[in-house]
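subagent[fold] <- orchestrator: predict structure for attached chain, return tokens only, no commentary.
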Amino acid sequence: NNIIMAEHHPLRTSDQEPKTAEFASLNAAAERRAKECRSAVMPSLKHLNFRDYDRVYEPSDDTYLLIDAIGYDVDAMEQSEGDDGTMLHSNMLQTIEIGCGTGTPTVYLAKRIRGIRGDEKESSEEETSSYTNKNCVHYVTDINPDAIRIAKATAESNGISTEHFQAVQCDVASQLIEKMEGKVDVLIFNPPYVPTPDDEVGSSGIEASWAGGSNGRVVIDRAFPQIARLLAFPNGVAYMVTVDDNYPEQISQTMDELYGIKVVPWLRRRAHNEYLTIQRMTPTRPFQED
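subagent[fold] -> orchestrator:
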């Protein structure tokens, strides 16, 4: 399904080009970073079959770029002497993935910070990095009940316990905001970013994974205040997938003006007929209610 969508998804038009030299430069740096970073090792999805992919989004180029971005920062964290405010926080306690689908990005992160490599459920001491964190609890949400079921199975198949992996069926992160406001160390969001008619947005089936409404921004825009409320200050980090149809420079300006959240293109890569970018978001101040 995702390949079909890409075939009908043109490269950006002139009005989607960055308006400032600064944002164009950030895009160029993100493209270089994507070429330099090592490819992340996908969690095992051997437990899934073709019928599952009729019900939930199958990992594709956007998923791979997303886990590459997370892996890039985990690598940097492992190589650092300590937290310097520019990377993932080594003592992360809670993460959230909004719209989890198969749960691949969260399970990838959970395995990395537990020192589990590749397809292995357990790792020997030789395989374990110097940094491990086995206390972090990972939350995932999806409006699609099949995604909740499948994400749980992905975690279990990769050795992540139910104690450390909680799946919640809800719209965006609505059921978790009160519980986790200001406490999320890592937030992952691969939104429905494909421009579609607005009336295609909001189903509880697989269409929810791609139908983004006008400029692919309907669900993205609804998520912004929730992301702002959830991210921990000062060390919280969010990773969000965009395409140029979403006007990411405008997203950066909006998040900065409304919530004091800095948005930087982090990894950027061409896939089929579109450019995919991982936007990395960090709060510059605590969340404030309007």
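orchestrator: received. Logging for downstream: The first strand starts at residue 94 and ends at 98. The mean pLDDT is 88.
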